[in-house]
Write the structure tokens for this entry.
Amino acid sequence: VELPAGQDPGDFHANGMCDALTNLTESTTRFLRWRIERIWGLADPNDIEGRSMTAETMLQIVKDHHNGMIHDDYIRQIAEITELSYSHLVEKFKGIEKTPKRKAPMPAPQEPPDDDYRRVFDQPPPDLHERPRRVIEEPKGRQSDENLDSAECRALSLILHNQQALENLNLWPDRISEQFFFEGVHREIFNSLIGSTTFEEAKGRLEHDERASSLLQKLHQEGPLQNLDDGKVTATIAEVLYWTAKHWHDEIASEATKNSDLKAAQELAGIHQLLSDLIDSLDPFSKAAEQLLEWLQSLGKGES
């Protein structure tokens, strides 16, 4: 609801204008519908792969909504606005998992006396402060590295073909760093582009990595993205950061569960909230984005 400039709900009550406030609030858009319409407004309706990726994001938002009775209505709405098959979206929706909810901090476990612990459990007390060995896995539930419509490839295309658009928004060269990209082929391409002035120079830096070199060649041949505006550019960069942070969040959460690492699991509660804030704002300069970047940098230094 957008109130007249300089007014808040209390002004309506103080001036005896409660009916006017009621009329404003009764015509509001439901928050779930508003989020879906906002994401669709950032998409390119003429790009079939872009519509598919956007539909996936909207389905995730619907999946996370607590009222299951309205899920089907919103799936139909998504099918209508994206012009994608309703039955296909239903199948996709069934395979999506809810975003993990924040859990209340768990009390520290009470361990039995040392002299009884070995007798009862026949093993030493677990060291919850020892960081489990991290295994790097490919992100689950995402497009393949070679899909040119993934957020990562769209961001790399912007750096390759549209650096001026990034500079105009103060995103390049100071804002976007390698922490925006998950470890692997996309980060390799990003680092090759940073120190290069031409495509040939960037490709030459990737001679040791055939996959990265091949993907960079595809991005070059594809040419610049079409129908760009400031909102789509900033949203793309924010989306890259979101997926990278989410990959690390999910990986650490999985390891914490396997190793009963309560401390690590509790620390992720705040990261989950930052992820929600970032996907809502799609602002790479937001406070949530800044804190997620600091967290990702700390992972690189072994502090988390």
About this structure: Residues 1-96 form one domain. Residues 59 and 93 are 6 Å apart (CA to CA). Residues 230-258 form the longest helix (29 residues).
